[in-house]
């Protein structure tokens, strides 16, 4: 098994890289999705979130109002720390489970775990390879505003609540420069895949 930890700031291109690696044959696991699973309707996690933040973060159908919770936590560091303390242990548990399942299904699998908060949650030591999607914060803010319809203020808040580009680069084994065209990003991913496949066949 080859275990890749794929990180990057918000809107840096992690999903684009993960999708390409998936098309080339990697098994994808996504921390953002696991964080959604951790607060699924009826889950203990969602109960704890409602206890801490009140019913205003719930939708009429009982699901999580992500926009309301996001507006609260990205403007208040203590609230964000409270949310992280509820969600992150479950994300860790689920990620370990999914990685073990993927390994059991195929001992030679290349697994790519997309984890926005690799540095922030101190998980840099757990991977065969740490890959960092890297584009300047200003460009990422512009993408969030233009492509996701976020206000500039919201985009800046999200960036401010994450590690810096320099902190992520410092833990990288491989940096994918995502500031150019999609084709340029994909060419770098294809080169990474060649390197990972060679490593796997040299071992096996
Ligand atoms: C606050 C929530 C409800 C907002 O939901 P929303 O649908 O708007 O955003 P989504 O979950 O799709 O996240 C988008 C991006 O925001 C950034 N982000 C999300 N959570 C955090 C966080 N706790 N700290 C810093 N950045 C974060 C990441 O870059 C992520 O890729 C949600 O982000 C959440 O529950 N966050 C806490 C769990 C978490 O840390 N998730 C990140 C991966 S473990
Ligand atoms: N060269 C590039 N490489 C990757 N993505 C790019 C590039 N140019 C533009 N984009 C766009 O930037 C956006 C961010 O990409 P993506 O969704 O892959 O980021 P992400 O890091 O997964 O985001 P999040 O942290 O919100 O989950 C996408 O809309 C993508 O199409």
From TrEMBL:
<keyword id="KW-0547">Nucleotide-binding</keyword>
<dbReference type="Pfam" id="PF01121">
    <property type="entry name" value="CoaE"/>
</dbReference>
<dbReference type="InterPro" id="IPR001977">
    <property type="entry name" value="Depp_CoAkinase"/>
</dbReference>
<dbReference type="GO" id="GO:0004140">
    <property type="term" value="F:dephospho-CoA kinase activity"/>
</dbReference>
<dbReference type="InterPro" id="IPR027417">
    <property type="entry name" value="P-loop_NTPase"/>
</dbReference>
<keyword id="KW-0173">Coenzyme A biosynthesis</keyword>
<keyword id="KW-0067">ATP-binding</keyword>
<comment type="similarity">
    <text>Belongs to the CoaE family.</text>
</comment>
<comment type="pathway">
    <text>Cofactor biosynthesis; coenzyme A biosynthesis; CoA from (R)-pantothenate: step 5/5.</text>
</comment>
<comment type="function">
    <text>Catalyzes the phosphorylation of the 3'-hydroxyl group of dephosphocoenzyme A to form coenzyme A.</text>
</comment>
<protein>
    <recommendedName>
        <fullName>Dephospho-CoA kinase</fullName>
        <ecNumber>2.7.1.24</ecNumber>
    </recommendedName>
</protein>
<feature type="binding site">
    <location>
        <begin position="11"/>
        <end position="16"/>
    </location>
    <ligand>
        <name>ATP</name>
    </ligand>
</feature>
<keyword id="KW-0418">Kinase</keyword>
<keyword id="KW-0963">Cytoplasm</keyword>
<keyword id="KW-0808">Transferase</keyword>
